[in-house]
Write a structure and sequence with these properties.
Blueprint: E1 3-8, H1 12-22, E2 28-34, H2 37-46, E3 52-55, H3 64-74, E4 79-84, H4 89-98, E5 102-105, H5 110-121, H6 129-140, H7 156-166, H8 171-177, H9 182-196, H10 201-210
Parallel strand pairs: 1-2, 1-3, 3-4, 4-5
Helix pairs in contact: 1-5, 2-3, 3-4, 7-9, 7-10, 8-9
Length: 214
Amino acid sequence: MKTKIAIVDDNTFLIKAVEEKLSFFENLSVKFTAMHGEDLLVQLEDNHNIDLILMDIEMPVMNGIDATEKVKQKYPHIKIIMLTVFDNDENIFNAIKAGADGYLLKEINAGDLHSGISETLNGGAAMTPSIALKTLKLLRNPFIETKEKEEIKLTSREVEVLEQLSKGLSYNAVAENLILSTGTIRKHIEHIYRKLQVHNKLEAVEKAKRNNII
């Protein structure tokens, strides 16, 4: 019997990439795809005869962690593997708390993804090695749920720049949207990185969201 799978991701290109990886295995069948958590819940109303969901974390409308919690409450038989680019401690902790059965990174190859699905369906917990290591560390030093709310003071212009960056826009596009030069945008980004104590765009956006700045 084929394993019935749903894929949840707001990026259609990444959905196609995952479908392609799964297509190598005759015992796996993608029943439907969804663009965010709410879309998934609506589709499950009509078809909850699903064995496993591959769930992204960062999505509009309803993120993967909230969706995992709701699916587990209503359809506890469905296994859920988080399939994401984010491997920070908070996401791992919250995903496990929400009921995720596994946690894999999107860069995973087709063979390892198939093994992870099989392992999870057999009662295991599929995890990318780096995630497994972080999970062990979390268990040894439990994550304190007081989210970091340090005093981060960004100017309104810096917040605007961050909001633009969070949409995945290039520096040139941000400059055009805010009617500023690319050089000015780079200066703002330098200040943002320094104030947030981060080293790249992904970390900056993630930390800003965590601290309700954007």
